[in-house]
Amino acid sequence: MRLRYAVLCVLSPLVLSLATGCSKQEAPKQEAPPAAPAAAAPAAGGAAEGKALFEQKCSVCHPLDRATARKEMKEKWASIVKDMQGKKADWISDPDAAKIVDFLAAEHGKK
Ligand code: HEC
């Protein structure tokens, strides 16, 4: 009985330290690659971010040309994007929506 307990006491911290040891090793690996694109993003400017968000968020239900085929005032884009936010819960956050509206108003705005 005692021996079994002793073995458990020795083994469980070992297993624990192995588990945490693994997760500690993986963390830096995951952080390292995104550092480069994140650093490049501000240099490219908010417009590039808005375009990327638009292509990612607005292409899941219909082709992007549903939006790019038309030109609208910024207010109209804002109301369309707000509409689209309502079609899929939590898919397009408010800050993302604002960037998408900025991109659409800049690239597909009414002059
Ligand atoms: C969850 C699905 C979904 C997502 C995500 C989505 N849309 Fe839509 N969109 C629709 C549907 C469905 C329609 C057609 C029905 C309607 O007009 O309400 C539509 C219609 C539109 C129209 C035509 C509306 C009109 O008044 O003629 C535009 C423009 C548009 N989407 C742009 C966008 C943009 C920009 C985004 C990203 C911010 C987006 N959509 C994301 C589902 C989506």
Mind explaining what this structure looks like?
- By secondary structure, this protein is mainly alpha-helical.
- The chain folds into 2 domains: 1-34; 45-111, Cytochrome c-like domain (Cytochrome Bc1 Complex, Chain D, domain 2).
- The protein is 77% helix and 0% strand.
- It is built from 5 helices and no strands.
- Helix 2 packs across helix 5.
- The longest helix has 43 residues, at 2-44.
- The chain starts with a helix and ends with a helix.
- The model is unreliable at 14-25 and 30-43 (pLDDT under 50).
- Heme C (HEC) is lined by residues 57-58, 60-62, 66-67, 80-81, 84, 87-88, 91-92, 100.
- Residues 57-58, 60-62, 66-67, 80-81, 84, 87-88, 91-92, 100 line the site of heme C.
How much helix is in the residues? over 70%
Distance between the termini: 84 Å
Radius of gyration computed on alpha carbons: 24 Å
**Unreliable stretches covering 5 or more consecutive residues:** 14-25, 30-43
Give the CATH architecture of the largest domain.
Answer: Orthogonal Bundle
Order of helices and strands: HHHHH
Tertiary shape: elongated
For the record, what is the CATH homologous superfamily label of the largest domain? Answer: Cytochrome c-like domain
Structural class: mainly alpha
Q: Hetero groups bound? A: heme C
Strand content: under 5%
List the total number of helices: 5
